[in-house]
Structure formats: C-alpha cells, structure tokens
Backbone:
C-alpha cells in the first residue's frame, strides 16, 4: 500500500479567521440532529491549486477518522483529548498543480472508551497554502453497508466493523467518484472548549509483512453469524473431516503484539464472508477473538461481505494482537489472496538508544523492553494495545517515561500524558490516574504524578512543565487534606489505592504504602517550590514532610524494623523515601532479596498471580521492580539484579514471547510496557549515564555498576535527537570507560557528583575507574 507521508509542520500559519476559539465555529456534520452511536459518515472535499504547493492541514474530530488524499491513505486521528481541552492535528503534504480530493471517513462511536468520551460528532478540516486558506467544496453522506452496534470490541473500546461492502458506495475515496448526489455539511455547535494544536509528532503508519504460519480449509459448526461472532469464529473446524469444506483460512504471525490492521487484497465471489480476528497469543494453536481481563464480553475481530472480484480489505480501526487469522467463507477454488500485508499504528519506528553486553540474554531483555514500549505507543503511551489502549499514569509517568528516555529522543507523549492528567483532575483537584477517556481517580497514581513531573524535567531539561503544572500539583496534594490524621492518610480516602498487583495492605486504619507515596510526593513538592523560588510554599511542604516523617518513623519503630512484619512494598518504598535509618538498611536489603527469591518465578511452588484478585504477600511483579531494583543496585547487589533479569524476565520470554507479559503469569495480557524496567535500569546502571538535565543541558551523573560484567556498550539519546556513545571494558581491576559525544558537548559528574568531566563535541574521552566502586 502506498502511504503518503504526513509530517508535523511546526510554524504553520493559518488565516486569523480560523484561529483560536473560531475553530469551534467551523465544525461540520451531516446535520444538526442528535447522532446515534456507531454510524459511519464520509466527507469529500475538493480544491484546486494554481501551482505546485505544500498544503498545510489542521484537522480534528469527535471520534475516530481516517483521511485519504487523492485516493491514497494520508493520516488518521484524532489525537485523544478531553472535551474541555480539544486538540487539532497539524499535517502537511506536497501536491501538484490542479484539482485534488480529500476524503474522510469518521465513525461516531457514541460510547465512552479509554480514548475519548462521547462528544456529538463533528469533523474539522482546514487547508492553507502559505497562510492563505484554500476554499474547499465539501460534500458528505452516511456510508451504507455498516451494521450498527452489532458488538463492542470490549467494554473499553468501540464497535467492531460489520460491513457488507456490496452496499458501500464503491471507490468513494477516489477523485473520480461522482458525489453530486451527496449533501452539503452544516456547521454544528459542540460542548467543547477552545482548540489548541496537538504537541506530539504524527503517529506513524508502518507497513508490516506478516509471516504465514498455517492455512487450510474450514467448515462452519456454530449457529447464525450474529448469535455469538466470537464463538462462531473460534469453533470453526479448521481441518474438516466430518463436514465438507466451506471456505479457507490463513494464520499469520506479526512478530510481536502490535496495534495494527490488515491490508489485504483478495479476489472473491460476491457474497463471500471475510472474518479477521487477532490475539496476543495462540490458544491451543488457534487465534481466539476474545480479550482477557476485559471485564465484559469482547470481540477482537472484523466481518466483511465481499462485493465480488478483486477487492481491498483495509479496516478503519486497528486492533491489538500478534497472531491473526483470516477466514473466508466461499468455495476454496474461488478464493485468491492477491496481497497480504498489515499496517501498524505506532508513535515510534526504530530506537535511538541501544545496549549490548557479552550476555545475549541481557541484550534480548533490553530490546524486548523497547519493542514492548513501541507496541504500547500511539497518540499516547498506553498500557496495552489490545485490551484497552488506556493512558494510565502508571504506564506513562512511572516506568514508561524511563524506558522511553533510554530508547528515544522524543518522549513528548509522556509530557502530554502528564498534562492531560492535570486537565482531567476531579473537582477536588486530584489528577486523573487514567484519562482522557473513562477517567479513573487513584490515590496512589495521583501522588506518583508529582515526582513524575520533576522526573520528566530531569530526563529532558524541559523546565516549562514545572511552571505549567505547579498549580495543579498543589491542588492534587491538597485533595488528601480531608483524610490526614495523626496516623497518616486514613483508609476512608475514597480513591483507588493501587500499590501493586497482588499487594496486601498492612493492618490498621492507614495504608502505609500509600503514606510512603504521599511522603515522596511532599518531598518532591518541597524541591518543586524551591526551584520556582516560592519560599513560603517550600516551607509549607518541608513542614508537611517533617510531620509525615514522624508518622512513618513511628510505624517502622512499632514493628522494631522487623521487615518480615513490615513487608516487601513498605520496605522498598521506605528505602526510596530515605526513611530507613542507616543501621537497618543492610537488613532491609537482605529482606528484599529474600522476599524476591521466595516468589514465583524464582520459587516455582510459590503462589501465582492468576488474576487481579489473587492478592498474596508472597508475590513479586515486573512493575514493582521499577522501585526495588534501583535500591539493590545502589546497595551493591548488581549481580543479584542481573540474575533476576535472567531468571524472571528470561522466564517471561518463554514459549517464543517477544513482548512482556503484564505480570509473572501468562493469563494476563502479553504486551505491557510497565514490565520493562530492566531496559531503563540496564542503560542507567550497566551503561552508567544517568541524565541530570535538570542541572544543565547534556549533564549526566555516572552511576556505573558493573557487577560481574566485563564489558558493555550502547547509546543514550539526547532530547535534541543526537546520541551519546558509551563503551567500557573491565581489565585488571580497572574499568576503561569511553564516552563519545555527538556534535554537542557532554558533562559527566563522577564520585557522587564531586568531580565534573567534560567531553567536547565530536570527541571521545576515556575515564579509568576502579571496578570495586562500580560493583
């Protein structure tokens, strides 16, 4: 499939008449009536260029849309937003002199999804050349052939596509199509705020060549097509002996879980049924069209009826999965697969960073974290491309931000996620843990959002996030004031307190893991206020931190610093908050190691985290290693951590998996980027450069921990798009550590930040480090 490249146009100029709030007066729809859910509408706009030109476009919508220019796929959207803060996308395209056609298909979902809330539908699309608006002659019509509201993909996503292409207006996206019978759109009012430009780069459309892994004949064995589409698909006999064959099937492997859709050209008789289903893993060798942990019915599939002849099947909305089956109900001799490819929707293509060592398994683990992160990146950093595509703060601002920063120069989707959490705050000021669709308010995530904002500054040097979000941060922390007691935040706090899957809270009326997150948030607010020069607010948060330090000190003392009684999560978070006295830290580290070794997959007989309700104190998760393993690295346990990567993440790579399972159990999703903490930790500790761009541009702390490794090399991305090279070897007790700067100078602080080393632009510099201090 030819794909026109859509590029971000910083500095585009548009006529003043359409600037700012005026966009709200240029929203189009078929009519002013209230729209029913799950309808598909086509728009066709024509314009003429007097000469070859670059055409700048601004576009947005209230639901999913796909854009074609002159019959070729161009872009899709919208970038997700909340109704109070709508966004438009910026794109440009180079076109020749003459007449051109823009075609847009918009599906109004009309239900709450993880991506958007239902806003009555509209299309906004404006084109300009050199700042002068192009007049566009628009036509629109509801697209025929789509059966409405047959099934939801699942309760978190929209509707499956159930289309009889014999009824669909043929070739309506093509310039030659006669749209003279189509109506004119009307301008409509929608309950949304003032538009602003999306600040992320365009999401990419990447062609994927699938691997055909099986094929054969099929026979129907279950009911009417609409009774239960998933059962009808899965129960088909794919090696029929008892029944005569009624069609053919093919199974593909896309290499890893992806958010993608098929782009198939098939030659079929009229009336042939084409059903396409995806799954993250095979169930007894089959693609099962159900999505685990959906909290309701699910159908990860499409259904088409062929027009007849050679025809392209390119669904409107991508679905998540690694394995895909195509079932065609038609005489096998009448079916011909002409072209088989897929198109992935993703924010990233190739990583800018890399990691290599003498241990191939560690190298694979690093790369798997990157591939999983890529699979979970579109217009937002999402938890999973299959189950819900939700922008959860735990994925955006905690693990995901760190993985993104070691893999890519551009982590703009992280900043946008932090901002949208604040935009979607509840009336009490608590920032959203999930947004902008289907908001969820979580006590723990709201507190973790605070250090995430400063961490973004540290990783990127973008200080504007501090000015932009400080007021929201104050309201967010103040939202806990009604629940503060002398024992900490009471359990009467109404928000979901997610600490970790499997987590078991301590006895009493106050969850101390949540209080530790509060402590870290208040510590962060102290620094945040100081950075902004707000002395009164700095003093306020310093006093809060001191009070909470006393509460938590009493909690630990109550148990005599007995870590078995205190528990894994509260020990780790106490270490992170700096609350564990020096004399107890070695015992705390020993307990953390003992706990980890007593859990699955280290202990094969330990309890398994089979589902979200399987809470047990004898559990570990990939997610919480984000907090636990830095403590172990920094307390001399490098080899323990590296062995855990090999043991636990090596287990997760079993059975040919190429993205990370959500927890250490295969019954959950098989693509969850928050399980990829080893990727950022290998870059920060085994390569050794830890960004301190909050201190200065291209400034790093040297945090090398070699353990039993004898060499490592890699690249660390810079926000500018350049990369810093690292290559070190261990010889005779000395680490020879070479840093190669791009066309930008780099500074490195060694020895707990006491000594600064400069590496000039386009040069390399080798440091000699004692290996014992790096173990």
Residues:
């Amino acid at each position: 499939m030819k794909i026109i490249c859509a590029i971000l146009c910083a500095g585009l100029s548009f006529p003043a008449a359409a600037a700012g709030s005026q966009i709200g007066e240029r929203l189009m729809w078929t009519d002013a009536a209230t729209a029913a859910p799950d309808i598909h509408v086509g728009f066709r706009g024509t314009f003429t260029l007097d000469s070859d030109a670059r055409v700048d476009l601004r576009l947005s919508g209230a639901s999913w849309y796909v854009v074609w220019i002159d019959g070729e796929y161009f872009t899709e959207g919208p970038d997700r937003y909340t109704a109070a803060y709508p966004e438009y996308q910026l794109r440009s395209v180079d076109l020749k002199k003459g007449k051109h056609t823009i075609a847009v298909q918009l599906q109004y979902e009309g239900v709450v999804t993880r991506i958007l809330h239902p806003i009555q539908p509209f299309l906004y699309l404006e084109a300009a050349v050199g700042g002068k608006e192009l007049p566009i002659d628009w036509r629109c019509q509801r697209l025929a052939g789509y059966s409405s509201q047959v099934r939801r993909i699942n309760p978190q996503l929209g509707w499956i596509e159930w289309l009889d292409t014999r009824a669909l207006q043929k070739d309506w996206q093509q310039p030659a199509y006669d749209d003279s019978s189509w109506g004119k759109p009307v301008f409509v009012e929608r309950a949304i705020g003032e538009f602003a430009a999306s600040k992320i780069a365009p999401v990419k459309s990447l062609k994927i060549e699938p691997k055909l892994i099986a094929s054969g004949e099929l026979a129907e064995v279950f009911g009417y097509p609409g009774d239960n589409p998933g059962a009808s698909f899965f129960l088909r006999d794919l090696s029929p002996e008892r029944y005569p064959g009624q069609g053919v099937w093919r199974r593909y492997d896309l290499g890893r879980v992806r958010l993608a859709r098929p782009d198939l050209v098939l030659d079929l008789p009229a009336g042939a049924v084409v059903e396409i289903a995806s799954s993250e893993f095979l169930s007894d060798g089959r693609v099962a069209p159900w999505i685990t942990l959906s909290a309701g019915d699910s159908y990860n599939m499409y259904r088409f009826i062929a027009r007849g002849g050679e025809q392209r099947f390119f669904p409107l909305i991508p679905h998540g999965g690694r394995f895909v089956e195509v079932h065609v109900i038609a005489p096998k001799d009448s079916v011909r697969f002409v072209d088989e490819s897929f198109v992935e929707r993703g924010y990233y293509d190739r990583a800018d960073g890399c990691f290599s060592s003498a241990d191939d398994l560690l190298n694979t683990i690093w790369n798997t974290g990157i591939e999983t992160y890529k699979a979970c990146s579109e217009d937002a950093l999402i938890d999973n491309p299959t189950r819900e595509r939700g922008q959860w703060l735990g994925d955006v601002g905690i693990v995901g931000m760190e993985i993104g920063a070691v893999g890519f120069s551009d982590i703009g989707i992280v900043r946008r996620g932090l901002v949208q959490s604040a935009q979607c705050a509840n009336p009490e000021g608590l920032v959203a843990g999930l947004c902008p669709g289907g908001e969820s308010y979580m006590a723990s995530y709201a507190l973790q959002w605070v250090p995430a904002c400063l961490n973004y500054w540290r990783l990127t040097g973008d200080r504007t996030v501090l000015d932009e979000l400080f007021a929201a941060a104050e309201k967010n922390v103040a939202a806990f004031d009604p629940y503060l007691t002398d024992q900490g935040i009471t359990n009467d706090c109404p928000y979901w307190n997610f600490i970790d899957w499997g987590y078991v809270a301590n006895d009493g009326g106050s969850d101390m893991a949540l209080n530790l997150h509060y402590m870290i948030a208040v510590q962060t607010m102290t620094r945040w206020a100081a950075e902004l020069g707000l002395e009164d607010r700095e003093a306020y948060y310093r006093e809060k931190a001191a009070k909470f330090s006393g509460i938590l000190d009493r909690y630990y003392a109550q148990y005599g610093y007995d870590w078995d009684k205190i528990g894994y999560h509260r020990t780790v978070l106490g270490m992170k908050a700096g609350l564990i006295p020096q004399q107890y830290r070695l015992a705390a580290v020993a307990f953390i190691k003992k706990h980890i070794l007593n859990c699955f997959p280290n202990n094969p007989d330990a309890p398994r985290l089979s589902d979200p309700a399987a809470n047990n104190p004898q559990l570990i998760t990939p997610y919480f290693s984000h907090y636990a393993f830095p403590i172990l690295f920094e307390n001399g346990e490098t080899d323990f951590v590296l062995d855990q990567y090999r043991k636990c993440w090596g287990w997760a790579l079993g059975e040919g998996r190429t993205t990370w399972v959500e927890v250490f159990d295969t019954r959950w999703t098989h693509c969850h980027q928050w399980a990829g903490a080893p990727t950022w930790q290998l870059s920060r500790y085994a390569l050794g450069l830890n960004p301190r761009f909050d201190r200065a541009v291209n400034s790093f702390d040297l945090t090398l921990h070699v353990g039993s490794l004898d060499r490592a090399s890699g690249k660390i991305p810079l926000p500018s798009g350049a990369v810093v090279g690292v290559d070190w070897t261990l010889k005779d007790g000395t680490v020879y550590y070479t840093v190669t700067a791009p066309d930008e100078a780099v500074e490195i602080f060694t020895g707990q930040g006491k000594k600064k080393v400069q590496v000039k632009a386009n040069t390399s510099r080798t440091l000699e480090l004692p290996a014992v201090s790096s173990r």
